[in-house]
């Protein structure tokens, strides 16, 4: 009888553990941000809380989300001494409205894929080592302010 109870309790715990681990899948935008982090050189380890084990990226350093659907609304990482490049994966964040990466040490080109972010209205990239300027067809992003 006691043994049966013990087995029952263990079963409940196991099933509960299984269910909670199932729900912990990072959103697609979170996975995209991890791709973006991969091409950055975060030498000061300021993006340490960008963790694949979270369910959403909404509390990560520099990130804010749209409230209803948890899609990424802004990336705000100025003055972070970030090196590396801006990943073309940025184009997958198509609800992005603000990208602020000014005063870092980014190099390479601003990826054309950024024109996929049709809601983008603020793009701050000054004081980096970026080449080639802003992609020409970014002019179609109707609300955009570039600083
Ligand atoms: C990252 O940045 C640090 C500091 O600027 C530098 O020493 C290091 O070589 C860089 N790493 C890569 C992979 O570029
Ligand atoms: C552009 O956005 C669409 C969704 O609207 C997405 O499926 C696609 O992967 C994005 N393209 C690029 C190049 O990021
Ligand atoms: C802007 O969008 C229109 C259609 O919405 C398209 O015909 C035009 O080629 C685009 N211009 C650029 C520079 O991408």
Radius of gyration: 20 Å
β-strand number: 9
Principal-axis shape? elongated
Q: Beta-sheet strand percentage?
A: 15-25%
Biggest sheet features: 5 strands, mixed
Mean model confidence by pLDDT: 86
Placed side by side, the strands forming the largest sheet appear as 2-3-5-7-9
Structural class: alpha/beta
**What is the CATH homology-level superfamily?**
Ribonuclease Inhibitor
Unique ligands: 2-acetamido-2-deoxy-beta-D-glucopyranose
Span of the ends, CA to CA: 72 Å
In CATH, the topology is named: Leucine-rich repeat, LRR (right-handed beta-alpha superhelix)
Count structural domains.
1
CATH class category label = Alpha Beta
Can you offer a commentary on this structure?
With 147 residues, the protein is an alpha/beta fold. It has one domain: Leucine-rich repeat, LRR (right-handed beta-alpha superhelix). 22% of the residues lie in helices and 18% in strands. It has 2 helices and 9 strands; from the N terminus they run ααβββββββββ. A 5-stranded mixed β-sheet has the order 2-3-5-7-9, with no helix packed on it. A two-stranded antiparallel sheet has the order 1-4. The protein has a two-stranded parallel ribbon with strand order 6-8. Strand 2 and strand 3 form a beta hairpin. It starts with a helix and ends with a strand. The relative contact order is 0.13. The mean pLDDT is 86. The structure holds 2-acetamido-2-deoxy-beta-D-glucopyranose (NAG) (3 copies). The site of one 2-acetamido-2-deoxy-beta-D-glucopyranose has 5 residues, from loops.
């Amino acid at each position: 009888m006691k043994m049966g109870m013990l087995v029952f309790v263990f079963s409940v715990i196991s099933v509960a553990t299984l269910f909670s681990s199932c729900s912990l899948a990072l959103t697609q935008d979170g996975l995209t941000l991890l791709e973006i982090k991969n091409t950055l050189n975060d030498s000061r380890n300021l993006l340490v809380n960008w963790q694949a084990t979270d369910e959403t990226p909404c509390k990560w350093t520099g990130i804010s989300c749209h409230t209803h659907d948890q899609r990424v609304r802004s990336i705000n990482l100025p003055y972070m001494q970030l090196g590396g490049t801006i990943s073309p994966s940025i184009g997958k964040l198509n609800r992005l409205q603000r990208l602020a990466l000014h005063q870092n040490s980014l190099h390479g080109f601003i990826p054309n894929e950024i024109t996929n972010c049709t809601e983008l209205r603020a793009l701050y990239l000054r004081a980096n080592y970026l080449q080639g300027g802003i992609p020409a067809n970014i002019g179609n992003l109707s609300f955009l302010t570039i600083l």
